Amino acid sequence: MELSYILNHLGETREDYFNAVSPPVIQTSNFSFESVLDFRTKISSEFENHVYSRGNNPTLAILRKKLAALEYAEDCLVFSSGVAAIAAAVMGNIQSGDHIVCVKSAYSWTKTLLQNYLPRFGVSHTFVDGRNPDQIATAILPNTRILYLESPNSIVFELQDLKACAALAKQHKLITIADNSYCSPLFQNPIVLGIDLVVHSGTKYLNGHSDVVMGVLCGCRDMIKKIFYSEYMNIGHVLGPHDAFLAIRGLRTLSLRVHRSHQSCSDLVTRLQPHPKIEKIYYPFINEQQSLAVSQMKGGGMFTLALKVDNKESVIRFCDSLQVFLLAVSWGGHESLVMPVVTFYDIPGQPDPELPWNLVRFYIGLEEPEYLYQDILKALDSIS
Fold first, then answer.
1. What is the pLDDT of residues 152-183, one digit of tens each?
2. Architecture of domain 254-381 in CATH?
3. Contacts from 224-231 at CB under 8 Å and sequence distance 24+?
């Protein structure tokens, strides 16, 4: 299926809404029926029919079709946040007494789910270095049910060999879940590599305008349908139709945005590498896992600098000197962002992160690369 068709036409039956070019926001909580028989028929199969917008809504249906096609999946669910999609994917495939193997570099709220929430219901976990296939294999127990991956992760961009992990999981009859938020479906397709379920923080590249919080879960129809009738409908992680409309709008420019972000990011990494105040640049296409990155992904718009400094104040001064980059979490919008790990140090009542305080993550948006480069150079000049 052509990418341009998916982004601009798939799921959009314009004859159903006056041939409007842009699909309508079906802002309704529920739907009426022609007869009791019609009511009974549709409510008996809510996954396929419109009954109540907590489950199915026409505007969301358009978005679901596009996202499933982008990930080469049979179906998709959209949620009110990325962590809701992660929780549904995990909780929909475990029961008390099960065990999960998860990469230790995963998103912080994924780790919170495994460390703080699921143990209350008798679900255990083991964190592993996902770069090491032997460590993953060794962590698998007789009661292991899920292998959870995030490739690349979102700070130092460690990768897992998704094809090898999928093969290993199939040997042990495990369900594989992969967070694909760093790459977007245009730069990596875990399902094609054998992964069962793919999750996204749709807040990021998929929406692309920093104005919607959204989660995405893609997979085969049977697995998606099972989660729809359990975690999705019961916990109510519903995305509103107006947010779905905004995400459809965002998808129109997905290809333009992610390619521009990648090209600018690659350019900046190349130019910054020799700088004497930079100890290391973390970026999948220049680090130890470069060959794996080239084999399973096509690009990405984030890198992390390890500054060559000996105190936290220098990192803070560097970040505060940036004039173009916004200090913020997340990524994927038009604006370039910076997130220093030192932010999370020395917070009363909270442990310091495991990551070094001299790491500063950059997301490269749609500004001119030279404009961004000069801003980073000036900030580097501010530190001794």
1. 998 999 999 999 999 999 999 999 999 999 99
2. Alpha-Beta Complex (3.90)
3. 224/73, 224/74, 224/75, 224/76, 224/77, 225/47, 225/75, 226/92, 227/77, 227/88, 227/89, 227/92, 228/47, 228/55, 228/77, 229/46, 229/47, 230/92, 231/87, 231/88, 231/91, 231/92
